[in-house]
Specification:
By secondary structure, this protein is mostly helical. It has six helices and no strands.
Length: about 240
Amino acid sequence: MSTDVNPHVVCEATNAEKRQADSVRNHHTTASASEVSDETMETAEDARVVALAEALKKRMPVEDCGFINQKLWCAEKIEMYHQAEELRSTTFGLQLLHVISTSYYRSSELVYRFFPVLLDNLLTQGEREWQVWPCLHPKSWVNSIRSLIQDVRALEDKLGMVEDEDEKRALEEDIAGKILLACWRGVRSEIERILASVANHIATDATVGRVGRKQRSKLLREVGDVFKHATNDDHDIQV
C-alpha cells in the first residue's frame, strides 16, 4: 500500500485550517470591538450624566447642614428661567421644556416618597447600586417606537402598489408624520432617561449629609417648576 500523500490534499487541508482560524479570529475581534463599543458608550453616557449633575449641584446653594441660601437660589432660578426662554424659541423648544420640567418634577416626587428607603439602601448597598429613578416607562417607549416603524414599513409597501397620485401623496404624508413621531419619541425617551440618572446622581451624592441630599432633591422640584413656568405665555417668573 502506498503511503505517499497527495500534496494538493495537504495544501487544501492547510488552507481550510487557516480559513477556520481566520474566521474564529474575526469573530473574536468583532465581539471584542462590540464590547469595547458598548463600554465606550456607557463611559460617555456616565461622563455626560456626571457633568450635568455636577453643574446642577453647583447651582444649588445648599450647605451640608441643609441650609439653603434663598437669595443665591432665587438668582440661579432667574438665570435658569432666561436660559429656558432661549430654549423655548428654538425648534421643538416648547416640547423639550415640557419633557425637562416633567422629568425633574417626577424625580422630586419620588425622592419624598422613597427617601427613607433610599437612605437605607445607601447604607446597605452602596451609592452606585441603588437607583431611585429607573428609566421612565422604557418598555412602553420601545414598543411604541417599534410599532411606528412597523406602520411605516406597511405604508411603504402599500405606497409601492398605489397608482393614484392623490392617494400616493396622502400616504407619503402619513409616512413622514410617523417617522417624525418616532424620532421625537426616541429623543424624549433619551432625555427622560438621562435626567432620571442625573436626579439619581444628585440624590445619592455621598459627599454631603442626609439633610443636604434631601434639600437638593427638594430643589430639583423647583428646577422643574422653573422650566414648566417657561412654557406658559406669562413670562414673569415668580421666585
